[in-house]
Design brief:
ubl conjugation pathway, 0% strand
């Protein structure tokens, strides 16, 4: 905990933070039925599943020619979370 600023800051482990942002928070938002009346529902991600998901690159789609970013998500998220925690 960081008490220097007068506010206790809990340092989250990478997987726990990933789970909070991309799974738990998404599940909470999905419970709000009115929010999804005119929108497409998001899909929660798990740490383990994020690296194995595949996006079909269909010719003419906005994802054509773009490397599968979901495969990169855990490898980018972990060092970024560490860098942010060190900067506090």
């Amino acid at each position: 905990m960081d008490l220097a600023s007068g506010v206790a800051v809990k340092l989250w482990k990478t997987k726990k933070l990933f789970s909070k942002l991309f799974s738990e928070d998404i599940l909470y938002l999905l419970s709000m039925e009115k929010l999804w009346e005119n929108r497409r529902r998001p899909t929660p991600l798990t740490w383990e599943g994020a690296g194995t998901m595949v996006i079909a690159c269909v010719s003419g789609s906005p994802f054509s020619g773009i490397r599968n970013y979901l495969e990169l998500l855990p490898s980018v998220f972990k060092p970024t979370a560490r860098m942010i925690s060190r900067s506090r």
